[in-house]
Amino acid sequence: MPIYEYRCPECSIFEVISPMSAASDQQSCPTCGGAARRKMSVPNLSKAGTSAFQLIDSSERSASEPQVVTGALPSRSRRKSQPYTTNPLHSKLPRP
Ligand SMILES: [Zn+2]
């Protein structure tokens, strides 16, 4: 439900939460009981869904909830020893 602001000429500004169908131009002041007129104010638009909000939200979430790795870890690059020769008879030779 939207929040409507009313300005009492005798007191101050007060807020009333009411459905849009029941919002009236005048409301009785809760302090003095006088007639208060509805005040035009800036709507409180949601910023959720903007790219800036998503960036801030993801960076704040990563501080306490780091992303879980679901895939396999990257394989280490294992270097196979390069054979000096492919002749099987050379394997019988003494090694240094
Ligand atoms: Zn008042």
UniProtKB/TrEMBL annotation:
<protein>
    <submittedName>
        <fullName>Zinc ribbon domain-containing protein</fullName>
    </submittedName>
</protein>
<feature type="region of interest" description="Disordered">
    <location>
        <begin position="56"/>
        <end position="96"/>
    </location>
</feature>
<feature type="domain" description="Putative regulatory protein FmdB zinc ribbon">
    <location>
        <begin position="1"/>
        <end position="41"/>
    </location>
</feature>
<dbReference type="InterPro" id="IPR013429">
    <property type="entry name" value="Regulatory_FmdB_Zinc_ribbon"/>
</dbReference>
<dbReference type="Pfam" id="PF09723">
    <property type="entry name" value="Zn_ribbon_8"/>
</dbReference>
